[in-house]
Every structure is written in C-alpha cells, then in structure tokens.
C-alpha cells in the first residue's frame, strides 16, 4: 500500500514529539517531510536558560539529532521556511521555492517574542528571547558590552536577566506589573523573589513602561526612556514581554485564527486535513506556552494522525518552575484564589519560605510555593486528581510527609536525597541511577522509568518517590496522570473505567470478543491487560463469562504461589484460623511424604507448605483433604480472628464464629486485588481489624465495621464505616461493600486506593444510606459466588486439567 | 537434525506451554494463539524463572517471576532488558509436535 504523505511545518518540541508518538503508534503509515526555519535539529527550548547561564551547552540540549530523522526516514529540510499553504492542491511551498504535497499537514510553527511597538525597536542590540540565535547574541554581547535591559518580569525575562547577570552584565528589569511573575505568583511570593534577585545584583523597575529606545548615533541601542521620565543606559535590550503565536501562514491559508490557530479537541483546524499543535494552536481559547500541555496535545494529535481516533484533548492544568539555580518556586492551578475559595498560608520571611494553598469545596485547586518546593509535585497531583482534602486539611500545608508514609525511613523528599541513596529497596536502585536514566533516555513517565531502571517495578512502594524524582528532573513535562486516566496498557487507549463500561454496556462475555469490540491493537493482548480483562469479564457477567485460565498469571492458574526456584507453596484453608488435630496430622503427613522443605505459620492464621514441586500439587491437595486457601489469588484470602467471647475473659462477641461465617460466605470470591478481613471480639483488637480491607470489632452493644485498612506496603488505618447490632448485619454490610469494590475498583487497586479515589461518602451513600441498593449489592455477590467451587477439588477431579501439572514424559532423549 | 516426537499439538493448551526434560535441563514448548510452537530453555535469562509458567501473548512470554518479556522466536529479552534463553528448532507435522535436539552441541 502506498504511504500517505505527512508534512510538518516547524521543527520544534511539540511537533517532533507528535511525530515520535505517531511513529510509535503507526510507524509505516506516513511518508514524513519536516520544514524547519532554524538551521538546527529539534532541541530543548526550555533549556536555553541553563545554556545562557553557562550551566549547559548547546550540544547537550539537542533532543533529536540528525541520525534520528534519518533512521526514521524523515525528509528533513532545515533552514527552509514555508511561505505558502495551498489547501486546494494540498501542497506547501518554501522560501527556497521547494514544494511538498500532503495528505495530512501538521502546523507546529510555535510562537515569536512580542516586540513592543516603541521607537527604537529595530535598533541593533534589540532582540527577543526565543531560540539559539537569540541566546548566542546575548552571550556575545555580554562579552563586549556592559548594560543590559530586560523588558518583562515574567519567567523568560527573569531567566534572561539571571543569565546575563551571571555573564557579568549590569542588568535592569522593567516590568509593567506590581510584582514579578504576576501570572505565576501572588504578591508576597513575587516580592520574596525580587529580594532574592536583587541580592544577586539585578535591578528592578516595577509599574514602569518603556517609552523609547535611543541609539548611539551608529544604529545601536544606547539607552532607554521610561514612562516616568527617567532613563537608563542599555547596550542590549531583551524583549520578554510575552509571546505571539505564529499564525500568519495559517491565516493567509484561510484557517480560522484568533490568538492562535483554532483547533478542536482532536487538534484539528478548520480544515480536516490540517492539524496544529504547540504554541501556535488555540484550544478552547487558550494558547499554551509551557511544555507539558504541548506534550499532551502531541499525544492526542498523534493518535488521530494514526487513525485510531480514541484520544481527546480537554485542556491542561499547568504548573510553573523558574529555571534559575538556587531559587525555588512553584505554582500550579488557581493560586490567586478568589470568590468561593479559602486560602491556607505559611510565611517565614526570615527563612525565605512562603507557601499558599487555595482550596475550593474541599478540593485543592491551586498552590504557590516559594523557598521550599519539595512538595510541589505532590500538590500538583492533588490538584489534577481533585482529591477531597477535607480530612487532611490541617496537615496539608506540611506536605506529603505529614500525611504519613512508612517504609522509606522518612526519605520521601526526593530533593533532599543524595545520588547514592537507595530509592527502590526491592531492586537496589539509587537516585543517581534514576536521574541519569531520565536524562539520557528522555523519560517522561514513571512507567518508562520502571522499564529502564527497574525502580518501582516490584512492590511499587517507591513509585511516588520515583514520581517526585521525575518531576524534579523534567519539571512540568512529567506525565503523572492518575491510573483512572491512563490507558490500561499499550494495547489500547481505553482506561480501566472505559473498558469496564464497554464490557457492561455491550454485554461482552468473552476475551476475544471483548478485544475485538474495543479494537485492541494486539490480537491477544499482553500480560498487563489480559488478567485485567479476565477479571472485568467474570465479575461483570458471573455465570455467563467464561474464565480464561491462560489469561491468569501463574499463581492463579496453578492455584499455588510460585517461589524463586520455580517450586510452589501450598496454603490450605483454615476457616477463621481454626484447625483440628486431624487436619494437623494430615498436614504433617503430607509435609513428610513430599519432603516439604519448610512448614511455616502465616500471618493469616494458617499453615504454609513451602517448596512443593508443581507435579506434586494435585496429590498434595488430595492428601490434605482441605479446601484451597486462595493465598495466591486476587481474591478473598483469610479472615483473621481472635478467640472472642467463647474463651477470652474480655471478649464481648463471638468473633471466631463471625470470622468463620464470613470466610465461608466469601469463599471463592475473585476481586480486583487481594482482600483480607479480620474480626476481633473486643476493642483490644487482637485480630488487627484496623488494617484489613474489612475489619470488624465486636463491642458490647454490637459490631463496628472498618474499611480500607492495609498492613502492607504502606500501613493504612481503616476508616470507620458503620456500627451494626447483629451478626446478620455484619454479613450484609460487609458483603455489600465488597461487591461495590468488585464492581467499581480498577484491577490491582486495593480497597484503600479505591476508597481514596471515590471517597468514603460515595461508599456510604451506596451501602449505608440506600438500603435497597445495599441488599441488591449483597444479592449480586451471593449470585456471583454461587458459581464458585473449590479449585483444588476441581483440578483433582478433572483429568483434562491435570496436564497443566504434568511434565511430558519424553523417552530417553538422546544427546545427539 | 534429530527430530523427537514430543506430543500431539492438542496436548498443549492454546496460549499455554508444556515442559519436556532435556539433557541440559527442562525445555519449555509454547503454543501461540495462531498454533505456532516455539521451544526455549525453561529458564529466564534474568533469574532463571520457569518461562513455561509465564503468560503468553503474541509471540512473547512474560516471565512469572519478574515479568521480563521474552521473544519466543529468538529467546531474546525485550528492551530495555538484555539476555537470551537458548532456543530449539521445533515444528508441527501431522498434528504432532517435533523437537530437534541436535543443535545442543553448538550452543554449549
């Protein structure tokens, strides 16, 4: 098939990122030509300031070298500015007369510095701050001249001022606003910033207009006149008073423009064959000038160019970082606040720390930090994910650490860590290794870091820390989308919620059928999506959807836990942790007969036989004569109990029997992740009910139920859910909650994370306030469980299933 | 080539694997959704995990221990991981799975 022709105008970060995403999705769909006005391959424009400051070199900031274009078969035309788009004939013409035809055109012309229309603006020595050429001009002027004037106290202006000051110039910044960075900071933080920069020798004139630039008699700028009548010497004038999207070309071609080329949620312009991304595009009235939104646009645009058509761009929440070494500031969202918002502030003028958080309707909507920005990434995530912060409000100001996160010796602050410190305790990965991998490979998501370094790829407890390191290393370009917005895996663009919805609404009951209906990219998925799909299918359509053992990971397929040497562990079920002499005798006999290397008591009040060979499993199960303990499954594990009122002198309720009854009721329940319960007979809570998915505590007048506790990676105390009077109610409420979790949680989401995502109130409404719904949930779980049998008995009883466990008896294989 | 008759194709589940005892340890024989068969040493190049127990998709298997992705055709780990499991010629004839062990000498 002949390839389609894709032409890109502009060779900057947004455009090239779109091509990278496109090549990942559809490497062979297009023949690609790129026109770039600058004579350089794609470089990291946001790192021009470190280059100006002498901290990096031009070579270091190149993102795609010429080999990259060649290796991907891209026809790159450098120093070649497109002057005409002929939409009728789908052809573009460049300044050198060369032409290219297109089936799809991508306009990524970026923006230009806004040059103030004042007398003297065309003098030699007056420049904008946009590209390598401007940066070079500044570096050269700093060598031979003394006075620099920067017009504009925004991010770019201050970075230019800082760089020029470091290169030895006397620098004055004129700014129209009342304080610096008035679009990124509030007044207090802006003043703190001004003090810090003044201490470095930079002068400021606020509330000031530049009226005219005067020449030295030889065509070069020599001084500036201000609106207040004053003047100052200036051998170099840098205009950093804003940017203007480059739309002339698009306008001439008749595309709708309005402070940017107007695009829809698919980044399409008024002409369906033409897309626009980056600083030249106006999406829902906003032309973004920061890199993170541009990368989000790139992803969506690539998706549509690849003819997948699933993704949608709905705008971005942006965050800001000033790239001036030694000055830490961060802002995100609506940090000014206003009607209907509440503000929490922390101010230490002597220590130079200022923090302001803006809360609206119990959700963090903005943050402005100066001096201590370590929690910037964390606040940014709270803002994007719109978490309810009512419960942690009094601790919010003190950051993620204050909320409590065990397991990393309190070293949650990525910034404070040295390069040698260990981040991932499972795989032994240090901070330096992660930072290096991020820089060298241009990584932008935690998943990519996991793949390259293995950090956070095992237990995942350091994922947040890795995310902080990523944010600190690449700033706003980091892709830190929550799981609810991310695609399930590379096989699809749909997220977990959308997959679930499709399975429910389209009544999908088979793996192949589901993949087909949802247009999976790979015929049989991958090791990430298949277990998830299998769970969604069987939990949505119990009795109808057929379980697919080949889509389960080995533990659930073998009904035992694989160990590092390829042997398995066997944990028979002991209801409520109660056993008998006969059971113990059988366990002892089996352990001896099959030479089990270790017999261990588990934390879930039962016995683990470790080191059983796979081919012995069916016989071990038969001889144990006990049901499966499901210690291997994303399923109900155990119900831990204390001895309760039957024996204990403090016991108020028969917790043992309650636990046994719950465990029987839930036997065989598959769930998004493992589920553990506990029942204690009095508030001394010997069964540790406070750290279980469902924890029950007997009190004199009834039972208290707690949900969403977790004793694993991160210790989480369960939330008090409800107090009920009878054992029957414990059963109904617990099962209803678990069914809600089964129906709504994403695969591999523990109850605590599900609870944090949807909020306790949502669960209360469904289970507590709506009695009809509670009963319906309870019934649905009982219905689903009615199809489940003991998997060990099933395996023993069905000879066809046995081959999973048998080695093929090959006759004497010759070593020919 | 010294082709050994191993089993009928039907004795391996679709998207499943079986183990054969080879002279140098277990050999895993995989069956894909398209009824192709591949044979590799049943040891992941990472930490020796039994690949036969992994989840199979496309022409790949995900190791059950640490989720390394191994290409069934070449035995190579997928980027960014590096390593290789030894592969064996295997074919289907008349519904029977045949495995060649001759190349074993060359790979020692």
From TrEMBL, chain A:
Residue stretches making up the Nitrite/Sulfite reductase ferredoxin-like domain: 563-624
Domain NADH-rubredoxin oxidoreductase C-terminal, residue spans: 319-386
Residues annotated for [4Fe-4S] cluster binding in this entry: 642, 648, 682, 686
One GO molecular-function entry: metal ion binding
Keywords tagged on the record: 2Fe-2S, 4Fe-4S, FAD, Flavoprotein, Heme, Iron, Iron-sulfur, Metal-binding, Nitrate assimilation, Oxidoreductase
InterPro entries, sorted: BFD-like_2Fe2S-bd_dom, BFD-like_2Fe2S-bd_dom_sf, FAD/NAD-bd_sf, FAD/NAD-binding_dom, FAD/NAD-linked_Rdtase_dimer_sf, NasD-like, NiRdtase/SiRdtase_haem-b_fer, Nit/Sulf_reduc_fer-like_dom_sf
Domain BFD-like [2Fe-2S]-binding as annotated: residue spans: 423-471, 488-538
Domain called FAD/NAD(P)-binding: residue spans: 5-283
Residue positions binding siroheme: 686
Domain Nitrite/sulphite reductase 4Fe-4S: 633-770
Name listed for the protein in its UniProt record: Assimilatory Nitrite reductase,large subunit NasA
Organism superkingdom: Bacteria
Obligatory cofactor(s): [2Fe-2S] cluster; FAD; [4Fe-4S] cluster; siroheme
BP-aspect Gene Ontology terms: nitrate assimilation
Note on how the cofactor is bound: Binds 1 [4Fe-4S] cluster per subunit. Binds 1 siroheme per subunit.
Pfam families on file: Fer2_BFD, NIR_SIR, NIR_SIR_ferr, Pyr_redox_2, Rubredoxin_C
Pathway(s) of this molecule: Nitrogen metabolism; nitrate reduction (assimilation)
Entry similarity comment: Belongs to the nitrite and sulfite reductase 4Fe-4S domain family.
Keyword hit for Iron: yes
From TrEMBL, chain B:
InterPro entries: Rieske-like_NirD, Rieske_2Fe-2S, Rieske_2Fe-2S_sf
Gene Ontology MF, one: metal ion binding
SUPFAM superfamilies to which the protein is assigned, alphabetical: ISP domain (SSF50022)
Domain Rieske residues, every copy: 3-99
Any one of the GO BP annotations: nitrate assimilation
Keywords noted in UniProt: 2Fe-2S, Iron, Iron-sulfur, Metal-binding, Nitrate assimilation, Oxidoreductase
Highest taxon, organism lineage: Bacteria
A Pfam cross-reference name: Rieske_2
Identification of the protein by name: Assimilatory nitrite reductase, small subunit
